[in-house]
Amino acid sequence: MRQTARSRAGLLAGIAGASAVLLGAFGAHALRNALDPAHRELWHTAVEYHAWHALALVLVVGLGAGRAGRCAVIAFACGIVLFSGSLYALALGAPRWTGIVTPFGGVAFVVGWVALGLSLRRRGA
Predict the structure, then answer these.
(1) Smallest Cα–Cα separation from 9: which of 79, 64, 87, 47?
(2) 65-97 pLDDT, tens per residue?
(3) What angle do CA 20, 23, 25 make, to 5 degrees?
(4) What's the whole-model pTM score?
């Protein structure tokens, strides 16, 4: 990954990690009594995937290389927005049809992991 792309991806990873912590705290404190158990579980799942994939972004920034590394960054970022974002919205009462977006985020996560794997494979070659 080129230096400019790496620095942007690093900033994105930091923002993703910080926002996962903030949204986790918001859910645990501000929303604790506002959401029923099912919606709290949606929120928890969103935060969990958000945080794990923020860490995946850090991994890409540190070890990713080339086009596959850039693809992994984009896919993980899209996955966070689509998957976790749709779950956050559903937990807060968005219309049920919002959930149609969630699987696209899951696919983006899978693409990100495959791209990261390819990037690491190429890096070692």
Answers:
(1) 64
(2) 899 999 999 999 999 999 999 999 999 999 999
(3) 105
(4) 0.93
